[in-house]
Amino acid sequence: MDLIVTATSQGFLWGIMALGIFMTYRILNLPDMTAEGAFPLGGAVAAQLILHGVSPVLATAISFVIGMLAGAITAWLITKGNVPDLLAGILTMTGLYSINLRILTRANLSLLGEERLTDFLSGLHLPSSFDTLFTGFMICTVLIFLLVSFFKTEIGQAVIATGDNERMARSMGISTSRMKAVGLMLSNGLVAMAGAMIAQDNGYADISMGIGTIVIGLAAVIIGEVVFGNLSFTHRLICVILGAIIYRLIILFVLLIGLEPNDLKLISAVILAFCLALPSLRKSMHLHFFDRKEQNER
Amino acid sequence: MSVNTILDIQGLSKTYQQKTLNEHQVLKELSFQVNKGDFITVIGGNGSGKSSLLNAIAGSSIPDKGKILLSGKDITRLKEEQRADQIGRVFQDPLMGTAPRMTVAENLAIAFRRGKKRRFRRGITANEKELYMDLLAKLGLGLERRLDSEMGLLSGGQRQAITLLMATMKKPAILLLDEHTAALDPKTAQTILSLTSQRIKEEKLTALMITHNMQDALTYGNRLLMLDSGKIVMDLSQEEKESLTAESLILLFQQHSLGFDLSS
Ligand SMILES: Nc1ncnc2c1ncn2[C@@H]1O[C@H](COP(=O)(O)OP(=O)(O)OP(=O)(O)O)[C@@H](O)[C@H]1O
Ligand SMILES: [Mg+2]
């Protein structure tokens, strides 16, 4: 039971990161690698700030802003430098590795005994992990509300249009470079913020904590889509969070059946590969049945 | 340039893959004027430069030489999105003009703000939705009932009708149509063509329409241009057009493309 609560609360935190991945991979249709650097960047910035006595709330907020800057660099490379999307993200990510090391000053920075974002709930004397669960739930709810409101504005709609049909967006007078910048900044801000919160939850920030960020984020996005299907925008965001929780539960399960934490990256990759291939697998297995059904629906 | 001129193209040239073996001049010192209210049909063989001309006007490619004045303003080097307030466009591919994952209403709302700066305001208001219903109803295709459907669920013809509406709902200085019925079945193509002509009349639009259908080129519009290897080789007025049949136009067309074939 405890383990499930822990896994679920981690799901909320990783879900915030997955929302960031959703912004780039799904809304902007842009494979952004920056996230792998922005995630530890957020963790490093928050850890260092907290160790210097900054309040966890402020430290987490600053991580968000610093993450946005990382997104802005990638956006600048793509729109002004005409660097291909994938390469631009890889460049920022690689550069960030050195910057993250500078911020951390060593490979691993412990936060044991420091204040945490969840401390404001300590007065309630919740059982262990429930404070993270509540904090994660509340932050996710607020974030989804804010994101849904944002994407209903003219700018939000312009970002969606840019990802959906860039040529059409430009012919409608939308500055697609600016919208890509908005999307990339928002995405990496969320990813860095998740990095800050997960560092606090783990009790340390680590230079290698970003490895696999994109695989995990995408796995959450795609698990959400596979399990819950094609939905409205608000529901898609909620499903990203649910996808992240399911992902953490799957991880919990494989650990319980005896695999080691060191195997986790491999497991993440296998889960994502499986989810990505699932639609084609399903098709090739029930080809005729599904074809007929699709035709009837037309 | 008369006061009636809305689009003035002066000595437009464009060469692709300059200074390579594949160097290819697609527009050659091309000049012409368009009067306000003109509906011009444009014909010409494959590769004669029709799309290149429209791309230069719309800003999706920047010419090497020459000038484009639209409503008296030099737009030659403006970015596509910077001149979008003046230009309505329908592409050949019905998938090109709309965003598939957005709803019909959301697509129309994007078009309703064509060329306006996007702000942190509501992306679509309740009043707008009523306006869109009315506009869609006028198309007579029952699309007003699909306002909240995702665009990707509609057929090519339905999407092209909506693209046409999107290109014209905020009146453009010029409407650019690039074989916008070529990918549709003959019946749908005729529907879209008559809707096009209806919108142009209703809104008193100025339009350039590329087509490979000689009959359509004669039936619609008040002027006809024929392009061949990047130049205008024929410019017919309304009266001249009326005296022609599709057969005689094909003959003229063949004479010109034959000349091109012999020279190359
Ligand atoms: N981006 C590009 N790079 C290189 N060559 C190009 C490019 N775009 C067009 N061309 C060439 O320019 C020439 C003119 O093309 P354009 O599309 O304007 O012809 P078109 O008259 O529209 O023909 P169609 O009737 O086939 O649509 C063609 O030979 C084409 O191969
Ligand atoms: Mg063409």
UniProtKB/TrEMBL annotation, chain A:
<keyword id="KW-1003">Cell membrane</keyword>
<keyword id="KW-1133">Transmembrane helix</keyword>
<feature type="transmembrane region" description="Helical">
    <location>
        <begin position="57"/>
        <end position="79"/>
    </location>
</feature>
<feature type="transmembrane region" description="Helical">
    <location>
        <begin position="124"/>
        <end position="148"/>
    </location>
</feature>
<feature type="transmembrane region" description="Helical">
    <location>
        <begin position="12"/>
        <end position="28"/>
    </location>
</feature>
<protein>
    <submittedName>
        <fullName>Putative ABC transport system permease protein</fullName>
    </submittedName>
</protein>
<feature type="transmembrane region" description="Helical">
    <location>
        <begin position="264"/>
        <end position="281"/>
    </location>
</feature>
<dbReference type="InterPro" id="IPR001851">
    <property type="entry name" value="ABC_transp_permease"/>
</dbReference>
<dbReference type="Pfam" id="PF02653">
    <property type="entry name" value="BPD_transp_2"/>
</dbReference>
<feature type="transmembrane region" description="Helical">
    <location>
        <begin position="238"/>
        <end position="258"/>
    </location>
</feature>
<feature type="transmembrane region" description="Helical">
    <location>
        <begin position="86"/>
        <end position="104"/>
    </location>
</feature>
<keyword id="KW-0812">Transmembrane</keyword>
<feature type="transmembrane region" description="Helical">
    <location>
        <begin position="211"/>
        <end position="231"/>
    </location>
</feature>
<dbReference type="GO" id="GO:0022857">
    <property type="term" value="F:transmembrane transporter activity"/>
</dbReference>
<feature type="transmembrane region" description="Helical">
    <location>
        <begin position="181"/>
        <end position="199"/>
    </location>
</feature>
<keyword id="KW-0472">Membrane</keyword>
<dbReference type="GO" id="GO:0005886">
    <property type="term" value="C:plasma membrane"/>
</dbReference>
UniProtKB/TrEMBL annotation, chain B:
<dbReference type="GO" id="GO:0005886">
    <property type="term" value="C:plasma membrane"/>
</dbReference>
<keyword id="KW-0547">Nucleotide-binding</keyword>
<dbReference type="InterPro" id="IPR003593">
    <property type="entry name" value="AAA+_ATPase"/>
</dbReference>
<dbReference type="GO" id="GO:0016887">
    <property type="term" value="F:ATP hydrolysis activity"/>
</dbReference>
<keyword id="KW-0472">Membrane</keyword>
<keyword id="KW-0813">Transport</keyword>
<keyword id="KW-0067">ATP-binding</keyword>
<dbReference type="InterPro" id="IPR050166">
    <property type="entry name" value="ABC_transporter_ATP-bind"/>
</dbReference>
<dbReference type="Pfam" id="PF00005">
    <property type="entry name" value="ABC_tran"/>
</dbReference>
<feature type="domain" description="ABC transporter">
    <location>
        <begin position="7"/>
        <end position="254"/>
    </location>
</feature>
<protein>
    <submittedName>
        <fullName>Putative ABC transport system ATP-binding protein</fullName>
    </submittedName>
</protein>
<dbReference type="InterPro" id="IPR017871">
    <property type="entry name" value="ABC_transporter-like_CS"/>
</dbReference>
<dbReference type="InterPro" id="IPR027417">
    <property type="entry name" value="P-loop_NTPase"/>
</dbReference>
<dbReference type="InterPro" id="IPR003439">
    <property type="entry name" value="ABC_transporter-like_ATP-bd"/>
</dbReference>
<keyword id="KW-1003">Cell membrane</keyword>
<dbReference type="GO" id="GO:0005524">
    <property type="term" value="F:ATP binding"/>
</dbReference>
